[in-house]
Write a structure and sequence with these properties.
Shape: globular
Strand order of the largest sheet: 16-15-14-13-7-12-11-8-17
Low-confidence stretches: none
Distance between the termini: 44 Å
Strand content: 15-25%
Largest sheet: 9 strands, mixed
Bound molecules: 6-O-phosphono-beta-D-glucopyranose
Number of strands: 17
Mean pLDDT: 92
Radius of gyration: 24 Å
Helix content: 25-40%
Structural class: alpha/beta
Number of helices: 16
Length: 491
């Protein structure tokens, strides 16, 4: 555990009354309080535009905690202790003069400062400049920003430049909340602590990899934001590519932030560009129409609240990504993600190649490859599908595929898996950047997805339709079937 003094910090939360702060950030901070991880002297300044007093904001936060923390984990005494740390400052983020009040709040305290910008990215630069010109931060200040960092490479560079004018890269913590998920971190342990897998992790032994991040929800009142983004910008540019990097990267020499991030960048640089002639075979984009989700009828994307007619924004994408390096040459990574799919499920499946010479029943040859299924959420765990002999005299040498199963909650008797934001906030307080995204990662990821988006725009093709509650357009099945393979749930 980190030295407590080391984690002592003040936290300024810009956008403190917004959805992210209320739904995720304050509940995560409350959980850190509950776990005894917040330093006794750490303070929080909630900052937003709304005119309000500290007591009023504390009452509001109390209500939001009751709403967003599971009842069994809500302890009134802890909440009270936590809320005593919170002060409120009403501020127009564009008014430099107003920032002098922040300086005053800080002046008496020697702690490190964490600035969390839970605001639209367009405000990052202005907030950074105003903090700087009012002398509110120093070279120890840590600055946390959320995705999306821009909507393409050019706009992400502008945001990164603006932040870079005031802060060094080692002060910037760019969040990709998938990196805070327990099971995503576990990918590092799985790959680099188990020599069993380390020696099998390449094109000699793996035939292909599937990464699926499915959601049953639609766009939940976020049409305004989502329609400008789409599933590629919202999920692939960040979460899916981060998962791909963790699966594909070479072993880092240690666990330091730069060792890990250097290896991830090498993967992003090795991703084969998707040229216009590859779009037909490597990319499928879809948009949901009305259907049934978890047993209930739901509207299509174009009938959602606030929807504009004729939008071509994709709510589903399936991609065949190829990595041009020695380790992965010839191993496709099939990735797909979508809204209004049949269930919420994130999983990675490593398909190993079959044994070089097959001696069993020819009818069973399709069974003959091992699979490692890594369940990121829900039901976190992993399962290694291996082949054994089917039991019984009459079965002869019939094969059967069965799992070597590890369900984290059962095997390790875990009572709760911390939310991603708890871990990320804790790492920020410790000043550890390894779960955060470096500027060059963001930019290489944009470069790859920009090309795909440009190809779509140039083609003028609308997305393919799929009914809500299904696994996306038929073309996604056709994409993988053309290669003689199938998505795991269809196998
Ligand atoms: C966010 C996206 O980054 O991740 C959302 O903006 C998406 O559209 C969400 O729903 C999914 O996160 P999780 O943790 O629920 O898988």
């Amino acid at each position: 555990m980190a030295d407590r003094e080391e984690t002592r910090c003040d936290l300024m939360m810009f956008g403190a009354l917004g959805d992210l702060a209320q739904r995720k950030l304050f509940p995560a901070l409350y959980q850190l309080e509950r776990a005894g991880l917040l330093h006794a002297d750490s303070r929080i300044l909630a900052i937003a535009r709304r005119t309000s007093g500290t007591e009023e904001v504390r009452e509001l936060l109390q209500k939001k905690l009751e709403e967003h923390v599971k009842p069994a984990e809500f302890e009134a005494g802890v909440a009270e202790q936590f809320l005593r740390r919170v002060d409120y400052q009403c501020l127009d983020f564009t008014d430099p003069a107003g920032f002098s009040d922040l300086k005053e709040w800080r002046s008496s305290d020697p702690s490190n400062l964490v600035v969390y910008m839970a605001t639209p990215p367009a405000m990052y630069g202005e907030i950074a400049r105003n903090l700087h010109s009012n002398d509110c931060c120093d070279h120890n200040t840590r600055v946390v920003v959320e995705k999306p960092i821009g909507h393409d490479l050019a706009s992400s560079k502008i945001i990164n430049d603006e932040l870079g004018e005031v802060y060094n890269e080692n002060q910037l913590f760019r969040i990709d909340h998938y990196l805070g998920k327990e099971t995503v971190q576990n990918l590092i342990a799985l790959r680099f602590a188990n020599n069993l897998f380390a020696s099998q992790w390449d094109q000699n032994h793996i035939s292909h990899v599937e990464i699926s991040v499915a959601e049953s929800v639609g766009i939940e009142g976020r049409w305004g934001y989502f329609d400008k983004a789409g599933q590629v910008r919202d999920m692939v540019q960040n979460h899916l590519l981060q998962l791909l990097c963790l699966i594909a990267m070479d072993p880092p020499s240690d666990l330091s932030a730069d060792s890990i991030r250097n290896e991830k960048v090498k993967v992003l640089k090795a991703l084969r560009r998707v040229t216009p002639d590859m779009m037909e075979t490597h990319v499928v984009r879809g948009q949901y129409t009305a259907g049934t989700s978890v047993g209930k009828p739901v509207p299509g994307y174009l009938e959602e609240e606030g929807a504009a007619r004729g939008s071509k924004t994709e709510t589903f994408v399936a991609l065949k990504a190829e990595i041009d390096n020695w380790r992965w040459s010839g191993v496709p990574f099939y990735i797909r993600t979508g809204k209004r799919l049949p269930e919420k499920l994130s999983q990675i499946i490593i398909h190993f190649k079959p044994a070089p010479h097959y001696i069993f029943d020819p009818d069973q040859k399709h069974l003959a490859n091992n699979k490692l299924i890594i369940r990121l959420q829900p039901d976190e765990g992993m399962s290694l599908q291996i082949l054994t002999k089917d039991q019984g005299l009459e079965k002869g040498m019939r094969l059967r595929q069965g799992p070597l199963e590890l369900t984290f909650s059962e095997t390790f008797e875990t009572d709760r898996i911390p939310d991603a934001y708890e871990r990320l906030l804790w790492e920020i307080m410790k000043g550890n950047q390894y779960l955060f995204v470096r500027r060059d990662e963001v930019e290489h990821a944009w470069q790859w997805v920009d090309q795909i988006i440009r190809n779509w725009d140039d083609s003028g093709q609308p997305p393919k339709r799929y009914a809500a509650g299904t696994w996306g357009p038929m073309a996604s099945i056709a994409m993988i079937t053309r290669d003689g393979r199938s998505w795991y749930e269809d196998a």
